[in-house]
## 1
Amino acid sequence: MEGSGRRQKPLRDVFEEISAGKTAASDEAVAAATRLCQDLAHYAGRAAELTTAALLYEFLERSKLLERYLDPDSALVEEQARNVAKFLRLVQSAGRALATDRASFFVPHLELLREAGDDPVAADFETSRDQVNVLSIHKAKGLEFPVVFLVHATDERIPGQARLDAFRLPDALARVPVPDRDRHIAEERRLAYVAITRAQNTFYFANAIDYGFQRPSRPSRFIGEALGREPSRMSGPLRVFEELQRFQRPPADADAPLPALGADDVLTISYDAIDDYQRCALLYRFKHVLQIPVLPTPQMTYGLALHEAVRDYLRRKRDGEKPTLADLQAVFRAAWLAEGFINPAHESERFQAGLDALRRFHEQERALPPPELVEQRFSFMLGSDRVVGRWDRVDRADDGAVVVDYKAGADEEGSGRAQRAANESLQLRLYALAHERVYGERPVRTVLHFLESGERGSVAPSEDSIGAVRALVSATAGRIRSRDFLPNPKSLRTCQQCPYHQICPSSLTARSATATAVAG
Ligand code: SF4
């Protein structure tokens, strides 16, 4: 900078020199530099007294920026205000995680976030009623616009081709699953469904037959899946070609991953599948037929890490080892994934809850003999339905076999909820039936063990309860075989807890969005 005298000088020193009239800067520049130096001195003093968020807020107020954001006079200012609001939220949540919530600690934290690839200041776009928004499908929220067009919805584009690496890491070494064709299609399907849910009223798939390539383009397979039928196709410049195409084999059904099943075909079904179908038939279709992936939730991360630790502990105990609490918690730490948590404080609270749950589990285990079976898979036939699953634990008690299923979820200690949950548990009844079918021995007890509270609920399977679950499995399998996938959520709560509620056009939590196909 002119007048700075030497290179490599802190910018603040330069402004102080300008402010002190030691340079040839204009009066205007001197006044601006003076204001800046006074502000810096003021905020340096306040930074020691205020939290980072309070300091930032004071800056917004003193600089009159807040006033401007209150009544933005342009889209640019509105966007700036949103960015600042997002930044303030980040400052606030970081403050809860930092040892000392002051700006001098926050700034290095922000640098770390940047280095980790986070972009803390970029706000999501906002919708506008007065303009057409052109967006990619990758960053969608629900119900953003009255009308949405998904253009170029061809099979060549959505799902398109998976780009597979020429040199792949061995699966065992990869931190995340190596992409393959099936995963690529599943992910593209999820994106297409998310795009649909942007529409408040009407959604259009738009595609052309001729994009100037040698071959005509086909409508995206997701159109047929969303509509439940293949879209009608209009004639285009390739009329002759299309005439010839009439002789090709008819396209496969939209639900190709689940072929139509005859009475003699085997349907494989698990407790999860039955439970999902009982909650809502459409949820079953999303998860088990279309296999639309979902992002991990904090409950999933927490539950998986707890289960992994308990499984490792029980296996070692079964094999005659005496694993310590430190061993148990080390597996939990290694299995922990910092994904999906609201903020660092939330993650740390859940992590601590997991460590406490394992401490309680370790205490309880001292009095128990080693398990007979750990994470044992089972499979048996019920008519032409194959029922599969896995027992977390089977013990051999004096009076017979005891099947135990671990639940990670929180349960109030002493509330008796564990016993109520066990009394109502379809899973326990199914696992008792499985034990009877696989080993010819009905368990004397089936137990739900809530890891967070340590509470257990126990039921003795009876002829009636096992008969009832057998009938329920067969009835559910029959409806799945007949492809009865119409949405039938039990209640609003079912939709609220459904991992697909943001993309589901039938969700009770959203207004319905209609899907319409257009060929152009
Ligand atoms: S959001 Fe509701 S209606 Fe849609 S799949 Fe889920 S439970 Fe069923």
## 2
Amino acid sequence: MNPADSASAMRAIGEILELHAQQTVLGQDLLLPVLHAIQDRLGYIPPDAVEGLAQRFNVSRAEVHGVITFYHYFRSAPPARCTVQICRAEACQSMGGDALLAHVRQALGCDLHAHSANGDFALEAVYCLGHCATAPAIMINDAVHARVTPVRFDKLVATQVANLATATDNTREAA
Ligand code: FES
């Protein structure tokens, strides 16, 4: 994280702590809600924040780190710009889910629970997306896609890549 991002993240964490402190005394039982609030705001829990949180909650750094790593929901690094979740449950597996996963790994160049080399895509497993009758299913960000074949997956990824490029251009123009 560059120094400007780090300072901004620490400011945001300070605001979250103050907000919670106004509501009640910051007891250790509030560590979890504060961690959720930080991740909701920043997208992850910066490792630099662990020491300050430990001091604020009067616990060890190991305890804060332990909570963050115990819950898989928490991230210690910024999220990828696009998350692909592939269903690994039974109905999807029986409809070509393994072959689809092999293709997805190759197409993104990363394994499950990892990011593509450019950091744009994260690949995660999920266990049923509620589209068992139209398996195999995947979710890209918040959108579920059913009856996904390797060819269809490639088209979906191409759309995402185009969207990410447009978003990057818009950000540059706004800067
Ligand atoms: S098993 Fe994959 S959507 Fe239900």
